[in-house]
Design a protein that fits this description.
The structure holds two protein chains of two kinds.
Chain A lengths: L12 H5 L2 H20 L1 H4 L10 H15 L4 H19 L20 E3 L2 E3 L10 H37 L1 H15 L3 H12 L3 H27 L3 H8 L4 H38 L10 H11 L7 H30 L1
Antiparallel strand pairs in A: 1-2
Helix pairs in contact in A: 2-4, 2-6, 4-5, 5-6, 5-13, 6-7, 6-9, 6-11, 6-13, 7-9, 8-9, 9-11, 10-11, 11-12, 11-13, 12-13
Chain B lengths: L1 H25 L3 H12 L9 H11 L5 H13 L5 E2 L4 E2 H36 L4 H15 L2 H15 L15 H31 L2 H8 L4 H13 L1 H25 L4 H11 L2 H29 L1 H6 L1
Antiparallel strand pairs in B: 1-2
Helix pairs in contact in B: 1-13, 5-6, 5-8, 5-11, 6-8, 7-8, 8-10, 8-11, 9-10, 11-12, 11-13, 12-13
The chains are: A mainly alpha, B mainly alpha.
């Protein structure tokens, strides 16, 4: 044994941030302002212009932490980088030197040309709006609505899954039957039926995504719960006389976390695709604010020519890179979790 | 075995009854009926429709009876093949739906004809040596093509092959009769998106089989590698992909919507979307009911097929 005493060094900032509380704090610091900024801009009042500023360093710190945590898997790091690229674009869009995304300037300007005193990196659409600016602003809506919808679906799906798995009996019968009915609808058919019934809007997309994905999430959680509830620590808690809600939240929930996180990455991808597709179909988010699905919809109607194909390619590549990011992240996470 | 099938059939019937009830109930609201009344009677909009005219219209259509009677009536009509009338297209829903479903069936046939061999081949080649460079390369291709949403695949293919090279038509509206060339891009889009999933499932199943002792025995007793793969491994490795293939039918009913709309192909998905945007209630109800019936049937076929192919389950249950 060596007897040299090492002088205690202050742990680096990154090392100190590597605990769940700090990570959750950073996520909230990044996410809450962005959600408010997109969903309820009027609520922010005079804070509107500055609210996203602290989110930029939070995003960068989170990215560094995530890369450190997942450095064992190249695939995961590539996926993370793609997702965080768009996250960074979303939080910093107001501070980038971009042309107003809704301002018509010079219609049908090809990429990398100058027109009317503006330089257009990615060209303009048929109304003369800057495509670079629209692509970057567009990711805000896709990310915020997509993540919110997935989160709501997870909260509801997990709750039902825990209840069905833990109480079993007729709770399980009823919940499982209801979810079987919903799962027998093809997903897009279910989306179309719900959005026709409720009308197209962001909030209704959340409802539609929840109805469509909660049953599948519930099935996964139910299966995991049925397995975990036979463990000794659950019996211990029951014998102590803990309330079922305590057992579900404190004993069961933390232990079903692992498989759910991988599934959540995949499902974030599905939801993003669904939102883009629904907007393309005219059932999702409404114009005029920029959105990838909307950009595709407008370009597919009026610019089906080789020389204007950049109008289709810009949003198509943007959405593909984000989905690829989510899927690679899920693949990498699965690989890492199998390795342990 | 028979008991399992019967049990499944009962479950399927229950799901159909429940689903049809939900589909009927959510579009049987006052709001939708007023819209329909305006569409039929003409006029300036829902606000201008007088209560008296609305009540008359309800009575004339036989819609003023209690809910459960209307539901029973609707189910009875549907069972007799009467799906109601499309307001947008001004024709009976039954033949309209049959025509569109046939078009989608043509599309689906080609998608499956290409996807199954491609997915199985890639999956088997990748799963034979798990972790080899070939496995890594093929798996990456499968993840990559599946990661690109259909709408983006459709755009990329259209831009390259239709707008750029001019080899294929960009739309599949089939205005001047059936043209097989117009089908190429929609089919390719769906195949590129769907084959990756099948390939990954086949790969996983194949990789698992290859670790089994009987494969090692077959190799050690000196059988040619080709015979080990074709005779021993494939039989068991293809059970799981079979279920996936049948369940893809369910996915296809979702997937066709965006592809058919993008390429303007007159199939089931486009019909459903047009009906949804127009508020054509009877068409939405009929199309949804058919979609659920197809999905539930494919689930049943997949379950029964799985039990049939896997003796462990057949005799265990």
């Amino acid at each position: 044994m060596s007897t040299t005493l090492e002088r205690p060094t202050r742990p680096s900032l990154l090392a100190r941030l590597e605990n769940p509380k700090a990570v959750i704090g950073l996520v909230l610091l990044m996410w809450l302002p962005l959600t408010l900024y997109v969903m309820a801009p009027r609520l922010l009042g005079s804070l509107h212009d500055v609210v996203l500023l602290p989110a930029i360093p939070a995003t960068l710190l989170l990215y560094t932490l995530a890369v450190r945590a997942f450095r064992g898997s190249t695939v995961a790091v590539i996926g993370l980088s793609l997702v965080f690229f768009w996250l960074l674009m979303a939080v910093s869009a107001p501070y980038l030197p971009l042309i107003d995304p809704n301002r018509p300037i010079a219609p049908f300007t090809p990429p990398l040309t100058e027109a009317r005193d503006h330089f257009f990196w990615l060209g303009t659409d048929m109304r003369g709006r800057d495509l670079l600016s629209r692509a970057i602003w567009g990711c805000q809506r896709v990310l915020v609505w997509g993540v919110t919808a997935t989160t709501v679906a997870y909260v509801i799906g997990t709750t039902f899954g825990l209840v069905a798995g833990y109480f079993a009996g007729w709770w399980d019968e009823v919940i499982s039957f209801a979810s079987n009915v919903l799962l027998s609808f093809p997903v897009m058919v279910l989306f179309i039926v719900i959005l026709t019934y409720l009308g197209p809007s962001g909030l209704n997309i959340i409802v539609a995504v929840t109805v469509a994905s909660a049953p599948a999430i519930m099935r996964i959680v139910r299966g995991l719960t049925l397995d975990i509830k036979t463990r000794d620590y659950v019996f211990a808690a029951q014998t102590r006389g803990e309330h079922p809600i305590y057992v579900m939240l404190i004993e069961l929930l933390p232990n079903v976390r692992g498989p759910i996180i991988v599934d959540a990455c995949l499902r974030l991808g599905y939801t993003t695709v669904a939102i883009t597709t629904l907007t393309f179909l005219g059932l999702g988010l409404q114009p005029p604010d920029p959105d990838w699905g909307l950009m595709i919809r407008e370009a597919a109607r009026s610019a089906m020519l080789w020389q204007f194909s950049y109008m289709l390619l810009v949003p198509a590549l943007a959405v593909s890179s984000l989905i690829l990011g989510f899927n690679l992240m899920a693949d990498g996470l699965r690989e890492l979790s199998l390795r342990d | 075995m028979t008991r399992l099938i019967l049990q499944r059939l009962v479950q399927m019937a229950l799901i159909m009854v429940f689903a049809s009830f939900v589909i009927f109930a959510i579009f049987d609201t006052d709001e939708f009926k007023r819209k329909l009344a305006v569409a039929e009677l003409g006029g300036f909009g829902v606000a201008a429709l007088s209560e008296e005219a609305y009540a008359n219209w309800l009575a004339q259509k036989g819609l003023d009876v209690p809910f459960h009677e209307r539901y029973a009536q609707w189910v009875g009509d549907v069972l007799q093949g009467d799906f109601g009338h499309s307001f947008e297209k001004n024709r009976a829903v039954g033949p309209l739906l049959a025509e569109r479903l046939w078009n989608t069936a043509i599309l689906a046939f080609w998608v499956f004809a290409l996807m199954i061999p491609l997915g199985l081949l890639v999956g088997i080649l990748a799963g034979m040596n798990e972790g080899s460079p070939r496995d890594r390369a093929l798996s990456f291709v499968a993840v990559f093509t599946t990661s690109i949403p259909e709408i983006a695949t459709a755009i990329l293919l259209t831009v390259v092959f239709a707008l750029g090279l001019g080899w294929l038509p960009a739309k599949a509206a089939m205005i001047q009769g059936f043209d097989p060339w117009q089908l190429v891009l929609p089919v390719l889009t769906l195949v590129l998106y769907a084959f990756g999933y099948l390939a990954r499932m086949t790969r996983a199943s194949m990789a698992e089989v290859m670790t089994q002792p009987y494969i090692r025995t077959a190799i050690l007793k000196g059988l040619p590698y080709r015979r080990v793969i074709l005779g021993h491994a494939l039989r068991n490795a293809l059970i799981a992909p079979f279920t996936i293939i049948v369940l893809q039918l369910n996915w296809l009913l979702s997937g066709v919507v965006v592809v058919e709309v993008f390429f303007e192909y007159n199939g089931f998905g486009r019909l459903l979307l047009e009906a949804a945007l127009f508020g054509d209630v009877y068409v939405i109800q009929a199309a949804t009911l058919v979609a659920v019936a197809v999905a539930v049937t494919s689930q049943l076929v997949s379950d029964i097929g799985y039990t049939f192919l896997n003796p462990r389950i057949r005799f265990g249950a």
